[in-house]
Amino acid sequence: MTYPGSNFDDLARGLLAPTDYQNPTPKARYHLVVIGAGPAGLITAIGAAGLGAKVALVEKHRMGGDCLNVGCVPSKALLEYTEATPAPEFGPAFAWLREVRAGIAPHDSVERYREAGVDVFIGSATVHADHVMVGEQRLNARRIAVTTGARAAVPPIPGLRESGPLTNEDVFDLTDAPASIGILGAGAIGCELALVFARLGVGVHLFELADRVLPLEVPEASAAVAAALEAKGVVLHVGAGVAEVKAAGELYEVVNQEGAFAVERVLVALGRRPNTDGLFAPDSGVSLDERGFVQVDAKLRSSNKNIFAAGDCIGGLQFTHHADAQARALIQNALIAPTAKVDGLVVPHCTYTKPEVAGVGITPDSASVPLDTYRFDFSELDRGRAELDGNGFAEVYTAKGSDQILGATIVGHDAGEQIAPIGILMSNGMGLSTAGKALYSYPTRSEYLKRLADAYNRSRLTPFVAGIFQRWLDFLVK
User: Fold this and answer.
1) CA-to-CA distance for 112 and 390, rounded, in angstroms?
2) Integer CA distances (angstroms), 461 to 78, 104, 401, 453, in order
3) Which of 47, 132, 221, 418 could form a disulfide with 217 if both were Cys (CB 3.0 to 4.6 A apart)?
4) Could you tell me how far CA 351 lies from the centroid of its own chain?
5) Distance between the two ends of the chain, CA-based, in angstroms?
């Protein structure tokens, strides 16, 4: 089938899931067998092989996992294209995402990992206590790493499955634009795709059970994104759960307490479920929680201490960069010494709407301890005044009476970039006042950190301290 960008899809498939590939003959025993070639598995495999370990990597579908194929890469490619292109059209936009995906594919390809010394096996895996079966091939292992990721969850809403709903796993395979789409879930994925489709001229209805979009962010951030989506024509339905999806001729009606809303396609963005179904043999000794996520300790060890797990299949914060950090700890713990813990990681996140919303750590609503909030509006910066899109704000939340940073929220252009130095401060135990010791290029948006540090330093000037300082100044002029 030929469609805009189909040549790039063919290229990517040939690199990530070659149809003529023959699995190698297994070695007698591997130091590490890795199951799942998403971000966590790829980093684990190539990192371990780089240390000289004998490594096998098993992938059921395509190398690269969700991030490359059906997640971060295609969604951000569409967001960038539709923002930068006046009156963007569906065909060229989706051709661009396919070109971007194919351009990255060599980095995650079967051939690259083979050249790095990894034995790559294509097929379904079954995990036993000390080995992995891939079809009839047995991979004996000193250690096993489960990095199988997660997939979109489709809840049991009456009529939903019958509507043939899209998820992130197939929405990027569309070759024709629907006239309208109903998106269930207004988290990061739902909001980003709502913006993309609206920019492409698709009628968008966005449904969210919570009373606002991005319900885990601070209310002002949610309000900024909601206003931006509505300005693009997205119809928001918040505070009302979807009760039913039913056929209406060639369309589908998404029904909630407000009424019934007709759309051509339905897209589900309502959370994730782990890819662990049928993965573990009874003798594996691996415990799963009630949702199917692998239960691990702070060192990523399962209930079988020779079997580790990392990435989305263990739940928690499901971000590529989080999986990356866990993979590095897994290598240390599985091959060298079990000393690396992941329970104290500082994990930022970003929703790439316009404005972007980035956060790290806690928010005032989630805090269990008293906080001080330091805030600065980007429009008050000279760079913000000079920009056409200079709005937004940065907030940093510290322990009450201290400069210890417990969290932050940034809303505005490049929020995902601007959150990085706060993550560095938090990861290294440095307080907000430390930010005031650095120099920042003028005029830049990064000066917000200097302003926040100044605000903290001013807060230390209590009436008592101010009185002492004033007496000292008076003494100097006598």
Assistant:
1) 43
2) 49, 52, 12, 13
3) 221
4) 8
5) 89
